[in-house]
Structures are given as structure tokens and as C-alpha cells.
Design a protein that fits this description.
This protein has no helices and 6 strands. Helix content is 0%, strand content 62%. A 6-stranded mixed sheet has the order 4-3-2-1-6-5, with no helix packed on it. The chain starts with a strand and ends with a strand. It is an all-beta fold and 63 residues long.
């Protein structure tokens, strides 16, 4: 199973949004993150990068 930690803007501990993310959906400028416990976090913006082997995703402002 591949789980990721999602960050806002850049990969820094203080920018962490949610850990153990199993599902990422993007619709209309909002990224919805769901972790393995079923918690959801909605973040305005878009996915800027996804390192699937490293388990990190960065969400940034919508272009």
C-alpha cells in the first residue's frame, strides 16, 4: 500500500496538511484528501507534485 504525506506549498514539517493519505481527488480548484482512517481534508489549489516512491505530495495555489 502506498500512503503519502501531503504538504502545502513545499515539503516542510510546518506545511504538513495530512499524513497517511490514501486518496487524492481534485475538482474545481479544490483538492480533497482522505487518510486511512477516513478523515477528509479539503484544500484550495491543485497538486503541484507527487513523489509516489517517497510518499510525498505538494499542493499549491491554482495556476
Amino acid at each position: 500500500m502506498c500512503l503519502s504525506t501531503v504538504y502545502r506549498g513545499e515539503k516542510k514539517p510546518e506545511n504538513e496538511i495530512l499524513k497517511n493519505v490514501m486518496l487524492i481527488e481534485s475538482h474545481g480548484g479544490v483538492v480533497t484528501l482522505t487518510d486511512i482512517m477516513g478523515r477528509e481534508e479539503k484544500v484550495p489549489g491543485e497538486v503541484v507534485s507527487a513523489d509516489l516512491t517517497g510518499g510525498t505530495v505538494v499542493v499549491g495555489p491554482r495556476s
